Amino acid sequence: MTTPEHVDVVIVGAGLSGIGAAHRLRTGCPGKSVAVLEARDSMGGTWDLFRYPGIRSDSDMFTLGYPFKPWRDPKSIADGPSILSYIRETARESGVDRLVRYRTRVVAADFDTRTSRWTLTVHRRDESGAVEEGTLTCGFLYSCTGYYDYERGYDPVFPGVESFGGEVVHPQFWPEDLDYAGKRVVVIGSGATAVTLVPSMAETAAHVTMLQRSPTWIGPVPGRDKVADRLRELLPARVAHRLARGKNIAFGVAFYQFCRRWPRAARRVLTRLAGRALGDPAAVREHFTPTYDPWDQRLCAVPDSDLFRAVRAGRASVVTDHVDSFVPEGVRLRSGRVLPADVVVTATGLRLLALGGIAPSVDGREVVLSEQFLWRGAMITGLPNFAVCVGYTNASWTLRADLTSRLVCRVVDFMDERGYAAVVPTPDRALDPRPMLDLASGYVQRSIHAFPRQGDSGPWRVRQNYPLDAVATLRGDLGRQLTGTPRRPVPLDRVR
């Protein structure tokens, strides 16, 4: 029987998080072997998968980018291809690209408490599409798959869709040959994807209508960061990047706290900004003033007010109503109005999927994630030598992702220092369970029950505050909440 290959640390996923994690482990734990397993044919994750028109970040690149890799592009709010190029360049420069194993999907993961190792069952797909099953073992498993389902988007069934005479597409699976120039387009949805699609498609379409059931908070932001541009003119790239990053972190935390503590004032600020960009107070009241408070759901950013400018120019419009059914000529609303369309884009949201669909087990027994708690927003009770990368909901994903990767490095070093073969977070008291993500958004509420939970305080709470998390993650005492299993002595008959 062939002994499976063993790797010290396996990272699942070669997206923005996985590439950053591999860099941190290479530099923070240089003596450890690392492998990155990627199910798809290329790296980049979200930024390689999504190809819809105008795809871009909804966070500034000084915080969405890596702290160790300066962002040099003029745009602060960057387009998808630029972000993908940045990820690939980072991997190439740091040598991480050589650690990635493509077309390798982890389908099962079991931790053996006797050997303190994970055994991963993987499906390796060759260029012809043939799949071969294999195994490998690792000492530490780090899931950087994000929490979206890459195979399926959320696509509700609309009555009469089969009668529609045009084309229906979902942003997650955008057809490369879709031609919408000069055509009438209806985009169903009002989240980050919809507000990105509408102004981009409006550049060539005859007209684009954003159909929303209810308004979303939308905030105009500059496409370029003038302060960062000036810093880059005066200072070395790394210093300028660090200062711009710090400035934007401080602003983001302050604005989030302002919205949560003084929601009425925040509502006034956001409606005033929308009114200034749109020039139509009545339209702002009807289509851009939600009933919920800012940051009850994620706030959508539009660079240089592009959505508002498209509406103001008449190239796009917003309708707030519900879909009654599709009809041959378009979409009929509950009000009875029919929106004529040649193309309908169902920007109806994403599906959440915990750990990329892996159901982890310990000694052959599945660990039910919804019964577990997150420690430091990273490690999970009941799962030894395991971490998951979960970004912020109120700020750039990479801020927390990078902290988690640095925490994993600390934990790996901690295990070596204490002589532990395994560690697992263990609460010292009963915890009050709360959802991992504290957002009222539909895509969260539909699936969050399948994820680990957060507690009510201390390291068991998933905070949305980078400065506090940075101090706790990088300086906190690991020994207080991690239960360690000492390494077993090597039997004499195995000593050479």
UniProtKB/TrEMBL annotation:
Q: Name its co-factor(s).
A: FAD
Alphabetic keyword roster:
FAD, Flavoprotein, Monooxygenase, NADP, Oxidoreductase
Can you tell which superkingdom this protein's organism belongs to? Answer: Bacteria
Q: Name one GO molecular function term.
A: N,N-dimethylaniline monooxygenase activity
The UniProt similarity line reads: Belongs to the FAD-binding monooxygenase family.
Against PANTHER family, the record matches this protein to:
MONOOXYGENASE, PUTATIVE (AFU_ORTHOLOGUE AFUA_8G02570)-RELATED
Q: What is this protein called?
A: NAD(P)/FAD-dependent oxidoreductase
